[in-house]
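re: the backbone from monday

yeah here it is again, tokenized this time
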């Protein structure tokens, strides 16, 4: 009975941490490839932005590459486009926020980037690996090894302590080496949860639960942290604490962080902010956070592709869900 319960907890843990098994479509770039002349022009003029073209990786390969991502939900004969031809690149170590109102498509984009739902068209590359080229098991393995998820509703297992939730995340990640207790202590101190690890979720405040969820996402040392509305269920004080922890983990641990939020104030802590509306990225701004790409001298920034060429930037640049619903 004990073994059966342990297996059940592991299965529940996988769903809570990594989501249901995600599929990404076979869609390669549906639009025309960027013309070589245009690409040479971008290299000569790094401030220029390409519109409605596939992203061409530069010498410093992005860790996240989204190209012509489109997601259309169907209800009978009605088609509801949630994400419309979105393309952008995120460099290693960046903190990028995607902000938009409810219904803008940002949560659908989160599921697409995490491989938790299938794109209608387009592709996602994580560390140079195209999700669409992997089978179901390989996609799941890539998510477990490269991506840490932080969800709005925490997704902690109620029958386990905070420590148990963190340990089960490590157990289902497939790593063969034992859990690094020194690293766990460091995370616990950084997130101010060391004295709360023996408590179950029902005995923790909302802010403490979200900090445990962040520790669970970071314990496997993922290259990428995807956070979907991490402050959505928190008051101002706890929201500020969680945002500070995400910013600190990005800087101290070097993880690439992409955060989805409806709150422009929360998004401002990122190094780069992408604004979504009606399924499209409509503009980009610099945030107050550190941007490792911009900090490197004599290095052109990655090309950013906006789905709507009619929208302009506010600042000058330097150098559904997996279950088929209609998420915002």
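seq for it, each position gets an aa:
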């Amino acid at each position: 009975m004990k073994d059966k319960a342990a297996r059940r907890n592991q299965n529940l843990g996988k769903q809570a941490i990594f989501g249901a098994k995600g599929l990404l479509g076979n869609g390669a770039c549906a639009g025309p490839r960027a013309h070589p002349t245009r690409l040479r022009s971008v290299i000569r003029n790094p401030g220029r932005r390409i519109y409605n073209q596939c992203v061409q990786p530069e010498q410093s390969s992005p860790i996240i590459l989204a190209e012509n991502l489109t997601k259309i939900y169907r209800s009978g004969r009605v088609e509801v486009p949630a994400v419309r031809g979105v393309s952008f690149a995120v460099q290693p170590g960046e903190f990028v926020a995607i902000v938009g109102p409810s219904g803008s498509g940002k949560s659908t984009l989160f599921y697409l980037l995490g491989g938790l739902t299938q794109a209608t068209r387009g592709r996602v590359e994580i560390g140079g690996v195209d999700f669409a080229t992997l089978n179901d098991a390989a996609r799941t393995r890539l998510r477990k090894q490269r991506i840490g998820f932080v969800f709005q509703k925490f997704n902690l297992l109620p029958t386990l302590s905070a420590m148990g939730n963190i340990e089960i995340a490590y157990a289902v990640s497939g790593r063969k080496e034992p859990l690094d207790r020194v690293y766990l202590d460091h995370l616990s101190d950084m997130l101010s949860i060391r004295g709360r690890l023996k408590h179950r979720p029902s005995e923790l405040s909302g802010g403490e639960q979200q900090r445990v969820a962040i520790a669970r996402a970071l314990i496997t040392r993922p290259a990428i942290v995807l956070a979907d509305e991490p402050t959505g269920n928190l008051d101002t004080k706890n929201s500020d604490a969680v945002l500070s922890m995400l910013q600190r983990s990005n800087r101290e641990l070097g993880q690439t962080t992409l955060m989805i939020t409806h709150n422009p104030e929360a998004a401002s802590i990122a190094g780069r902010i992408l604004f979504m509306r009606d399924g499209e990225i409509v503009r980009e701004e610099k945030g107050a956070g550190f941007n490792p790409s911009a900090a490197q001298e004599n290095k052109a920034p990655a090309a950013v592709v906006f789905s709507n060429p009619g929208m302009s930037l506010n600042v000058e640049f330097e150098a559904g869900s997996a279950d088929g619903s209609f998420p915002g």
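DSSP finds ten helices and ten strands in the chain. The mean pLDDT is 77.
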